[in-house]
Amino acid sequence: MLLLRDLAHQAPLRLATGAFVLNSGLGKRGADADAATGMHGFATTAYPFLGRMEPRKFAKLLSTAEITVGAVLLFPLVPEGLAGLTLTGFAAGLVGLYLKTPGMRLDGSLRPTEAGTVLAKDTWLLGIGLSLLADDLVRTFYRVRG
Questions:
Q1: What angle do helix axes 33-46 and 55-74 make, rounded to 10 degrees?
Q2: Each residue of 73-97: pLDDT tens digit?
Q3: Are 116 and 103 in contact (CB under 8 A)?
Q4: 24: burial class by Cβ within 10 Å (0-12, 13-18, 19+)?
Q5: What rounded mean pLDDT belongs to the chain?
Q6: Is residue 3 part of a domain?
Q7: What would you measure as the largest C-alpha separation in the chain, in angstroms?
Q8: CA neighbor of 120 nearest in space, from 129, 110, 134
Q9: Residue 51 in contact with residue 44, Cβ under 8 Å?
Q10: What sign has the CA pseudo-torsion 43, 81, 70, 119?
Q11: What phi and psi, each to the nearest 5 degrees, are found at residue 87?
């Protein structure tokens, strides 16, 4: 049985990250046509298959995804493994956007340009998601081994 004391060390990670991602999703919820077109155009640079999607539909889907990820992190009854997997999947897409978008990184480097710093911070989300997953794996390993 998972006890509150077992999750205490995760609370700051989940609260801060969940609130940040939820707020981002809520901010995109009512995106107007120009904002939706901008988000969509930026995303299609890295992920061309998204070009088939209508911009407002994309913005709504992105908003819903962020709200869902934020809620999963904030809801304490969601197991750490599921929360970690959800955040890791979402953050991997964001890091992919950073890696695939021209002008975000210095030539031949993973270091961000000034413009890329905004996206480079998403590596923190990936690290937090992977940490939650690792926590779950270690806890499961010790439960199984006794």
A1: 80
A2: 999 889 999 999 999 999 999 999 9
A3: yes
A4: middle
A5: 92
A6: no
A7: 56
A8: 110
A9: yes
A10: negative
A11: -70, -40
What is the C-alpha separation between 97 and 2, in angstroms, rounded? 36
Task: Tell me what pLDDT residue 141 has.
Answer: 82
Q: Is the pTM of this model over 0.85?
A: yes
pLDDT for 86 equals: 98
Residues composing the chain? 146
- pLDDT value at residue 5: 63
Residue 104 lies in a domain: yes
Parent domain of 113: 9-145
Phi, psi of 125, rounded to the nearest 5 degrees: -60, -40
Number of domains in the chain: 1
According to the model, what pLDDT value does residue 139 have?
83
What DSSP string describes 30-96? Answer: T--HHHHHHHHHHHHHH-GGGGGS-HHHHHHHHHHHHHHHHHHHH-TTS-HHHHHHHHHHHHHHHHH
Q: Which residues of the chain have pLDDT under 70?
A: 1-7, 146
Amino acid 1: pLDDT: 47
